[in-house]
Structure formats: structure tokens, C-alpha cells
């Protein structure tokens, strides 16, 4: 690297060779020497930048280059919100219901959102969990044109807080976040988030028929952003207040921190990013780094009817440790003609005679990561039984409602459903209830209808279990109710 003196020596030599400038230089006329000194200073600074740029390919030095490198690698700068447990005391002479989503303020005016509501009786106390974040719903964005990888910039918070969470809907359909479009099928309803070299964040949609969902003209996008302060040093015993008091009795509640579960994390600094970008296994979510063999197999074999992939840790959590499980990847699958387990015990049933599909799966996994020994396990069909009780107004046909429930549940959660194709998954009663309410107008449009669902005792579930629902009319009870005699209006 050339220094300031190197440039000064060369400029001085050239100045003395000029008949007009030489006399001025010899007497150190400031009208000349000041210009020479300024030029030498600027050239030395530029020389230093060139020297740094030469080595940037091997070591990121300048902050701008570090941020650009992080942006290129898909690293997102965001914070992790703090979480605390708060002791709530009710000084009111009656019961107070503190609902989920209530907003509390600490002494620094930071917002904390109550994770789960509690009903607190008179002169009693209870503990709630609160997360430090401020939720902001942006104005609806209407897409004017359809193009691949459409970008929407996430606004910077006016208060200087950091982005911690982000969710969105497109035409009232909720999209999920998938980092860098890893293992994404065409038209799958997901979005990605990118950062540029100035730390601006962008929501990125997909490319039609290639990966993800490509937004179309007139699509309406609703974005909800959560901002947090990051790391917060707040001592036990600190007090909170409600941001809004809608009822006078709510002012009788006292909020005091009892435990700090997580003090939060600030976004990584430039120095941290400089090293973070050196290790792809930390920031990359590819199938190789995280072992997403489940998606790898499903993408290659879309006709598969059931697939469950698990490692030695999951296996030993279920059946106990064994040295034989070291570096072993367990796969239970069925295309329709594979061996099924007939065991009535919890013991695993190994498949010894592999089908052509199983051999192809084994070769696919070994190509992706040769460090695993692939062990095929016979899937075991496992019927999950639910009991559904429904009450509907008299104007609806009981038989038609019963048949609709049977058809919907067996289609959505039956043996041939997408839900049942993945091992270790059991539909919750809330999932079944949501599907029934959404698809049967008697429940979605009539407030007098009622629906209750109970799940039979299912016992221990193992990874190779092919869990599915099979309902018969014996599992469903539908009653007709007369709402004419109920007090539903003004008296």
C-alpha cells in the first residue's frame, strides 16, 4: 500500500521539474504545498481502500461488505423478544378476567403482551407469561402486477425497535415463512424474507410453477409485524401497568415480575455477522445441513402414501438407548405394497426384503448424506377414534349433517388424506372442529349450533405409526334443538 509520503515524494519531484512551480516549491509557498498535501492525503486514503478491496474476497473488512455478504447469503438481522413471568394480584372484590393479548407497560414504556389469559378470583394472585413486543398491522397492499419473486419492503420501526416476528395473509389465506425457499413445492403458500446491504428487509414471494406462490394482480396482502427492543435488563420486582383500562375494576390489578425466562437478544452486530457468514451450517437451512430427508423423499416420490423419517435420538426417546442405533436413520414408508407391521407390542419390526421403491429411497438418502445407515421399519396402521356430539337447529336435516361430518372427517384425516401421510402426527380435536365448522354451514353460519369432540385414549405413539381417523355413524351423535322456546330476543 502506498502511503502519504510516497505520494508527496513523487509530487514534489514533478513540481520541481516545472519552471513555474519550482520557485514556489523551493520557498514552500502554501498556495502550492497545501494542494500537494491535500492530494497526497486523498490518494493515500484511496490506496488504503484498494488494499482492503484486494483482500475482501478472503476476509470481509469493511462494514458495507459484511452487510452485503450477509444479504447475499440470506442472513436476516432480527431480535429475539424478552419473556418474563409476572405475578398478578387481584385487589378487587370480585373475579377479574385478564384476556390473552392484553398489553402491559414497564417503567421504560416498553410494551409486553400477555401470552395466555387468566381468571383471577377476589384477593388472590396468579402468574402469567408476557412477551416484550409491539404488534403493528400494516395497511392492506393491493398488488398491481404479477411478477416472479415480487418484493415488499418491511417498514423500519419509528421508535427504533428491531423486527422480531412477521406474518402475512394473501386474500385472507395465511402464508407461512420458509427461509430461502428451502424444499418448497410450486405454488406452496409461503414467503421468504431478505435483507439488503443497508439492512432493509423485504418480503419475497415465489415463482409460479417453480417454487412458492407468485402474487397476482389485485391480490390483497395484509402484513402484521412485531417489533421488540431486544435484550432488556429488567430486575425482578419491577412493576407493570395495563396500557388500556376498559373497565374500572382492571385498575385493581397489580403486576410484579416474579421470574425472567428470557432476557431477549439484540440483532447480531457487524462483527458477529463477519464470522457468522463463514459458517453456512449456522445460517443455512438446506436439507444437507438440517437433514430434511422427509421433504427430500416426498419431492422425489410424490405418490408415496405414508412416510415417517426419524433419527436415533427420537428412537431412543421412545424405546430406550442402544449402541446399534448410532448414526442410523429410520424410515417407515408405504406405496401400497410394502410390508406392514402386525406386531401387537411396542417392539420395532425391521424390513429385511426391500421393495424397489425402498431401495431407491435408500440410494437417495445415501447420495444426500452418506454418513447414515438407513434402516427400514414396517409401518403400523393405527386408527384414532373420536366421538363427535353435535346440536343443530331444527331446520337442518340430522341425517345430512351426520353424513357430511363422516365424509369431511374421513376425507381430511382418513388413511388416504395428506394429513395421514406423515408419521407421528395426530389430529387435535381443535383441528377436526375447525374443518367441520368451516365446511358445514349449519355450524359456520348458525350461532345456535354446538359441536363437541372427544378423543379416545390412544396410548403411546411410535414414529412408525400410520395414524389416521376412521369414523362410522356409531362415533357421531347429532341432536336437533328447538330454538323457538329459547330467550333470544328483547322482552
Provide a descriptive summary of the structure in words.
The structure is a single chain. The protein is extended. The protein has 491 residues and is an alpha+beta fold. The chain is built from 13 helices and 24 strands. Strand 18 (328-334), helix 10 (356-368) and strand 19 form a beta-alpha-beta unit. Strands 7, 8, 9, 10, 11, 12, 13 and 14 form an 8-stranded mixed sheet that branches. Strands 1-6-4-3-15-16 form a 6-stranded antiparallel beta barrel. A 3-stranded mixed sheet has the order 17-18-19. It has 4 domains: 4-55, no CATH class; 79-267, no CATH class; 287-378, no CATH class; 382-481, no CATH class.
Short key terms for the protein model shown above:
single chain, 491 residues, alpha+beta, 4 domains, eight-stranded mixed β-sheet, six-stranded antiparallel β-barrel, 24 strands, 26% helix, 27% strand, disordered C terminus
Short description:
With 491 residues, the chain is α+β, with helices and mostly antiparallel strands.
Share of helix, binned: 25-40%
Mean pLDDT: 83
Structural class by helix and strand composition: alpha+beta
Largest sheet: 8 strands, mixed
Set out the fold topology.
Blueprint: H1 4-16, H2 21-26, H3 30-55, H4 63-72, E1 83-90, E2 96-98, E3 103-105, E4 111-114, E5 118-120, E6 125-132, E7 134-137, E8 141-142, E9 151-154, E10 162-170, E11 173-177, E12 190-195, E13 201-204, E14 220-228, E15 239-242, E16 253-262, H5 270-276, H6 280-283, H7 287-290, H8 293-300, E17 306-311, H9 312-319, E18 328-334, H10 356-368, E19 373-376, E20 380-384, E21 386-393, H11 398-413, H12 429-439, H13 441-444, E22 450-455, E23 465-469, E24 476-481
Helix pairs in contact: 1-3, 4-5, 11-12
Amino acid at each position: 500500500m502506498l502511503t502519504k509520503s510516497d505520494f508527496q515524494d513523487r509530487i514534489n519531484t514533478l513540481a520541481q521539474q516545472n519552471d513555474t512551480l519550482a520557485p514556489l516549491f523551493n520557498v514552500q509557498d502554501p498556495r502550492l504545498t497545501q494542494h500537494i498535501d491535500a492530494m497526497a492525503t486523498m490518494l493515500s486514503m484511496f490506496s488504503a481502500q484498494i488494499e482492503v478491496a484486494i483482500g475482501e474476497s478472503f476476509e470481509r473488512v469493511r462494514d458495507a461488505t459484511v452487510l452485503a455478504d450477509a444479504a447475499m447469503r440470506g442472513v436476516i438481522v432480527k431480535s429475539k423478544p424478552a419473556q418474563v413471568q409476572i405475578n398478578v394480584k387481584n385487589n378487587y372484590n370480585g373475579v377479574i378476567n385478564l384476556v390473552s393479548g392484553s398489553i402491559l407497560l414497564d417503567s421504560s414504556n416498553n410494551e409486553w403482551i400477555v401470552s395466555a389469559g387468566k381468571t383471577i378470583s377476589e384477593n388472590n394472585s396468579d402468574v402469567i407469561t408476557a412477551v416484550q413486543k409491539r404488534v403493528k398491522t400494516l395497511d392492506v397492499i393491493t398488488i398491481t402486477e404479477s411478477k416472479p419473486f415480487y418484493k415488499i419492503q418491511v417498514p423500519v420501526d419509528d421508535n427504533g425497535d428491531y423486527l422480531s416476528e412477521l406474518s402475512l395473509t394473501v386474500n385472507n389465506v395465511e402464508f407461512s415463512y420458509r427461509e430461502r425457499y428451502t424444499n418448497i413445492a410450486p405454488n406452496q403458500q409461503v414467503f421468504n424474507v431478505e435483507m439488503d446491504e443497508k439492512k432493509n428487509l423485504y418480503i419475497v414471494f415465489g415463482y409460479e410453477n417453480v417454487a412458492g406462490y407468485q402474487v397476482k394482480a389485485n391480490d390483497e396482502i395484509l402484513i402484521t409485524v412485531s417489533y421488540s427492543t431486544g435484550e432488556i435488563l429488567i430486575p425482578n420486582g419491577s412493576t407493570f401497568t395495563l396500557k388500556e383500562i376498559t373497565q374500572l375494576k382492571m385498575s385493581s390489578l397489580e403486576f410484579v415480575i416474579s421470574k425472567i425466562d428470557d432476557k431477549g437478544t439484540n440483532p447480531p452486530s457487524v462483527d458477529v455477522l463477519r464470522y457468522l457468514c463463514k459458517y453456512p451450517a449456522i445460517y443455512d437451512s438446506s436439507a444437507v445441513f438440517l437433514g430434511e430427508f422427509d421433504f427430500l423423499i416426498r419431492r422425489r416420490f410424490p405418490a408415496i402414501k405414508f412416510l415417517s423419517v426419524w433419527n436415533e435420538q427420537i428412537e431412543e426417546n421412545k424405546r430406550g438407548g442402544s449402541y446399534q442405533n448410532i448414526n442410523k436413520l429410520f424410515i417407515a414408508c408405504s406405496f401400497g405394497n410394502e410390508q406392514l407391521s402386525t406386531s401387537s407390542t411396542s417392539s420395532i419390526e425391521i424390513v429385511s426384503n426391500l421393495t424397489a421403491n425402498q431401495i431407491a429411497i435408500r440410494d437417495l438418502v445415501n447420495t444426500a448424506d452418506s454418513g447414515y445407515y438407513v434402516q427400514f421399519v414396517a409401518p403400523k396402521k393405527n386408527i384414532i377414534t373420536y366421538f363427535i356430539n353435535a346440536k343443530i337447529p331444527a331446520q337442518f336435516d340430522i341425517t345430512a349433517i351426520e353424513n357430511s361430518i363422516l365424509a369431511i372427517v374421513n376425507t381430511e384425516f382418513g388413511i388416504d388424506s395428506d394429513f395421514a401421510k406423515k408419521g407421528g402426527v395426530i389430529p387435535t380435536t381443535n383441528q377436526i372442529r375447525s374443518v367441520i365448522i368451516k365446511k358445514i354451514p349449519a355450524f359456520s353460519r348458525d350461532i345456535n349450533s354446538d359441536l363437541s369432540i372427544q378423543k379416545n385414549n390412544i396410548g403411546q405413539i411410535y414414529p412408525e405409526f400410520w395414524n389416521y381417523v376412521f369414523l362410522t355413524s356409531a362415533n357421531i351423535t347429532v341432536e336437533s334443538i328447538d330454538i323457538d322456546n329459547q330467550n333470544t330476543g328483547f322482552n
